[in-house]
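User: Some background: our group keeps a shared notebook of sequences we're curious about, and every so often someone picks one and asks for a predicted structure to add to the entry. Today it's my turn. The entry only has the sequence so far, pasted here. Could you supply the structure so I can complete it?
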Amino acid sequence: MKTLAIALGAALAIGSAAQAQVGPEKDAAATPLVVVELYTSQGCSSCPPADALLEKLAARSDVLALALHVDYWDYIGWKDTFASPQYTQRQKLYARAAGHRTIYTPQMVIEGQDHVVGFRPMEVADLISRHRDVAPEAGITLSRDGDQLTVRLSPTGKVSGPLVVQLIRFTPSQDVEIERGENAGKRIHYANVVTEWSRIGEWDGRADMAIEAPAAGDAGVAVIVQKKDMGPIVAAAMLK
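Assistant: Of course. Here's the predicted structure to add to the notebook entry:
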């Protein structure tokens, strides 16, 4: 397995099972979601199997699968068309919170807690199953009226703050022809490619709360609620 180790730099603090609502413009029946973040790169020869695994996870109704493309492979001849230094920094923050000195691709972070390096589908499946069986720590619903998104949060008596509420926009499906680098000549399909990750509020977890945020366009929309300083994810929801 090929990995790339990166020394951790200065960290920026951002803000377990999840209770989620899935629906196009209005609230729908609750479905528990497990959040899986894949840190990947178009320039990494070890990443395509993990990219394919994420595509399968994205098709599941109990998983919020998100592909975050990092930029530290760009130097070897192919600039990842989806990469952002913001996602590299998020991966570094996870490593720092876990006491790790290096980061890798591919790497999956499940529910903000469990790190899986390389292509290990059975380990990922086991962790998803384990988190899915845990009672939700918070309730969350999403609804959208035109370009305006409303996030409604409710405590279950188990969650405590401070919690960071984050809005994610993603492209559900996209193919890329890679012309140079380790994957030169390959056409790779990517699922749930993150195009925006922003902080829209904080919540103390004590009482119901509503947050409004702009969500224009046709891109997928997801919201996660995470304990501060890269702690566990306690709630997640998405609208497709």
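Suggested note for the entry: The chain is about 15% helix and 40% strand. The longest strand covers residues 187-203.
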